[in-house]
Amino acid sequence: MKLSQFQIEEIVRRALVEDVGSGDITTDSIVPVNTFAAATIIAREAGIIAGGDVAKLVFNLVDKRIVYSPLIRDGEEVEADQPVATVEGPAMGVLTGERVALNFLQHLSGIATTTAKLAAKIKYYNAKITDTRKTTPGLRLLEKYAIRVGGGFNHRRGLYDAVVIKENHLRLSGGIKQAVALSRENIPHTMRIEVECSSLEQVEEALDARVDIIMLDSLPPEQIREVVQKVDGQAIVEVSGDISGDKIVEIAKTGVDYISLDCLTDAFDRLDLVLRIGEVKSEPSGEVPPIEGGIAEPAE
Catalytic residue among 13, 64, 65, 99, which? Predict the structure, then answer.
């Protein structure tokens, strides 16, 4: 999964408008407009980096003269006190974009790091870690990207790209058979159908309806194992519910195909990163005009 500027620019611009507004009052008051700076983003703890292109776009939108150079690529490990990237350019722009760039980097790297730790726990089993729709509003695209960077997999992107029939759908449609039949009448033939099951009886109904994916919600490991044996490859088996990192290995041992985890985007620790200014110099050619409105036009 790759991110393009077309996908992320609106998200980044919204974050800059929120933080910068009509201008960085502190920086505009203190820092001479002709001052250039070289800064380094440093990790204060070990983890997996994600969001380098997002941070680069932040600085580029603030001032297209700023050069963001990654030293650690997305998906690579970083150790504590190790440099992650360098940022060089007009000091006003570097300081103005600092917080937004770090917010994205810390947030996405935290998700990637959490995902990598959990994926490592079950790397010797068939099961794969996948995400849920419990994402930060407005950041789902980036968060799902970070999960892929960390070695996880993505569930559906939203309500529009897969049929997932849950308990409330079943209550309103009259049961699994009816819900699956109605779905097939209204979706493209290329789209998969997933049904959430909370009992062995529902699993049998789902198999009779020839669903593509059976989602087991909050079942104990012994029942999950029984379902996996019953399904026997007729459908993909996914487990969801309140699953902590401590339970993930026990569930993976049952032979399921996917384990969907809320904690990847709902209960993770941001990776601790800091930007430190190093070399400072004045532009010899004279005064550099400030960026009007606080956010420059995107680079061509």
Answer: 99
241-258: per-residue pLDDT in tens?
878 777 899 999 999 999
276 is catalytic: no
203 and 138 co-located in one domain: yes
Q: Are residues 149 and 113 in the same domain?
A: no
* CATH number of the domain that residue 55 is part of: 3.90.1170.20
**Does the annotation mark 123 as catalytic?**
no
Count the Cβ atoms, other than its own, within 10 Å of residue 247. Answer: 14
Is residue 230 part of the annotated active site? The answer reads no
Q: What is the mean pLDDT of residues 272-276?
A: 98
Q: Is 99 annotated as catalytic?
A: yes
> What stretches of the chain adopt beta strand conformation (E)?
35-43, 47-48, 67-70, 77-78, 83-90, 128-130, 163-165, 193-197, 213-217, 236-240, 258-260, 273-282
Task: Assess contact for 131 and 261: CB atoms under 8 A.
Answer: yes
Catalytic residue of the set 64, 121, 166, 253: 166
Domain shared by 255 and 274, yes or no:
no
Average pLDDT in the 38-51 region?
98
Query: Are residues 130 and 248 located together in one domain of the fold?
Result: yes
Active site residue 281: no
Question: Alpha carbon of 68 to those of 32, 58, 77, 170, 234: distances in Å?
Answer: 21, 10, 19, 51, 49
Q: Which domain holds residue 97?
A: 5-117+269-294
Statement to judge: residues 113 and 128 lie in one domain: no
* Catalytic entry in 53, 74, 143, 196: 196
260 and 149 belong to one structural domain:
yes
- Band the pLDDT of 290: cuts 50, 70, 90: very low
Residue 192 and residue 83 in one domain: no
Whether residues 27 and 112 fall in one domain: yes
Per-residue pLDDT tens digits for 148-177: 999 999 999 999 999 999 999 999 999 999
